[in-house]
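Progress report, Aim 2. The chain analyzed during this reporting quarter is listed below.
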Amino acid sequence: MTTDSFVFDPFAAGFAENPYPHYDRLRAAAPVHEHPLGFWIVSKYEDAAALQRSAQSVDEQDLTRLPTWKSDSGELGKENRMMRGLSMLDRNPPDHTRLRRLVAKAFTPRAIEALRPRAEALVDAALDRIAEAGTADVVAGLAFPVPFAIISEMLGVPVVEHTRLRELTAILVLALEPLPDPALQAEVRSANQELFAMVGDLVRWKRAAPGDDLLSRLITAEHDGDVLSEDELVAQVMLLYIAGHETTVNHLANGVLALLRHPGQARRLREDPALAENAVAELLRYDTPVQLMRRITVESMPIGGSVIPPGSLVLACVGAANRDPEFWGVDGDELRLDRPNAQQHLSFGAGIHHCLGAALVRLEARAVFTRFVRRFPEATIDELRWNGRINVRGPAELSISV
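Predicted structure tokens for the chain:
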């Protein structure tokens, strides 16, 4: 149950650099916490997992108890909602079921596995550049270019579009942050509209010049006569583009940082490549790039001794749940690449909203982590600067010497 005296403060000193001590206090003092700013947050593993698996809504139109920073949510027109509210991220069944089914037809495990040689080649080329220079920023030199190139090539996005797309997606992902200020909200809405228009132009160009790429397959994806509308197609492409590199960048940078800080674990991975799959899961658990996942209650939800009323915004604190000692044991704060239940992390979500691109993330992460520890056994950290985000969290800069 929540307590009157405790208030979760993600803006406290040191939170951006290391939120986990704050999460420890949150789980202990108020594991189901009604924040005075008008939202709820659950932080224990079982509660967060139950929320992810629940049939509660992801559509902000169901919000009737508006948090302070969403006071204008009910007044925003469709064109101002993130991806116009049409992406899988924001839709409930039956729309979510229909959209996911159509997108999945062009996002099969076979298609992802076919990307393995390209992913490994991109990683090797990035590591070659780092080795030649002797120093590098892991974010700019490895964690960003690899997934960005892969999702761009998958979608068939022309190289000329990359710079502005990168700028716009970096702004748009800030919409996932809690408590953004009004100026930031306006910037996000502007980026949303510009990116929607840009992707719409790309879709029209691809219709006229189809190729062997994901965007062309999405355009032709069909199930029992059902196809994506033009706006739905644009929204799914925007979602895939954002999720396909923004969250992955932070996972790769967080993972490399964790390995650099735990040389014993890096050595284990270097000496035992069979650990690779479990290592990717454990690194996702240990420092997840997506710290918060949201639901909106459409009915009263009993959870953890409290009852959350309908129309409420509820945040599953994945970062806290992924280290909950009641589930993970007393060593939940430790990195153990051989942790037997690491695959039970909540970083990919659960239930019908489980991350569609999870296989792609694992493929890219495995290539990066295994090759990095093998190539640079003596790498050291020169400088670390965090991106300052509460939710999609990771280093803005991770400078190393190899």
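The CA atoms of residues 105 and 205 lie 21 Å apart. The radius of gyration is 21 Å. These observations will guide the mutagenesis work planned for the next reporting period.
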